[in-house]
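Thread: sanity check for a docking pose with S-adenosylmethionine

Original post by kr_44:
Hi all, I'm comparing my docking run against an independent structure prediction. Below are the sequence and the ligand SMILES. Could someone generate the full complex and paste the structure tokens? I mainly care about where the ligand ends up relative to the chain.
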Amino acid sequence: MRRHRSRDRQHRPEDSHRQHDRRHNTPHHNPCSHDEHLRRLTVDFTYPEANMSSTSGDSPSPGFDTSVPNIARVYDFFLGGTDNYAADRALAAQIAELSPDWVQACRDNRSFVGRAVTWAAGQGIRQFLDLGAWLPTHPAVHESAGGIAPDARVCYVDNDPAVVAHARALLATSASAGVAEADLSDPASVLGHPGVTSIIDWSEPVCVLLAMVVHFYDPVTARELVGGYASRLAPGSALAISCGRNDDPQMWQRMRENYTAATTYNHTRDDLRSFFGPLHLVPPGLVVASAWRGGRAAAPERPHGPAYVLAAVGVKP
Ligand SMILES: C[S@@+](CC[C@H](N)C(=O)[O-])C[C@H]1O[C@@H](n2cnc3c(N)ncnc32)[C@H](O)[C@@H]1O
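Reply from moderator J.T.:
Ran it for you. Here is the predicted complex with S-adenosylmethionine included:
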């Protein structure tokens, strides 16, 4: 991904468009807000490369294949980012066409992440490990945590080298957050990774986030890998999981076949509950992401179709 243009503030999607406009002053490159960008998802997937290479003048890294859809970049586009290429947008368009609810579901997921982090910080947790983090934006975990606890520390983990490079640039001036390149499916290597242990003290409570990543693993593997983290957590730690769900088997099958960036699994509510093992689910338990409120009754769900996100937070006794 491109180098960050400024090291003294957070990246905002609108900024990329503004920068891009200076270089390509065509009607197609009008600045657009985050909401406008999301609205375009249903109508326009064709705008040119308003992203990594074009805004900075950088070329993509060697081995960085922009012709193949990528998990992080497709997700970035769903959330209104500009770190994506035509192949990513083409796949995003297919998914959005198959399941028009999906863009909103991704946004609901980000809102859940923010609420889970805020809740955990309010419980006194001061360390956060975001596994499969993608970019620290929309809003960033360290911003949500820091809003409650300025002394909170955050470690972002991703296995995509381009995501990691970009996240490091975004966090270059942050004293409270860092990034580690690691494979979340190998808990032992993540737990001992120097980039993780320089931020996370495993003898103290941690909030571990597994947001929108367990659907990359079959239920048995997902349960094992979540357990690999949960077993190492200090008492009082929290584990937040969110996961896409589709109640329409035919739509799900079409989405799965079309989503070529990775193999995905449609976990049931029982699967997801089982991933928490002995952890106690915080009220309201496992619910639609838009309804989760830490320690309280569920809020009304945002109306949704067959595709939505389920979410819960467990606490280690
Ligand atoms: C769908 S995005 C979710 C991002 C963020 N957790 C959220 O909920 O908004 C999935 C992210 O997980 C990363 N990822 C996928 N497999 C991974 C793995 N085995 N280890 C670490 N990161 C992984 C991808 O690169 C991508 O950034």
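The chain has two domains: 13-98, 102-248+266-315. Hope that helps with the comparison, let us know if your pose agrees.
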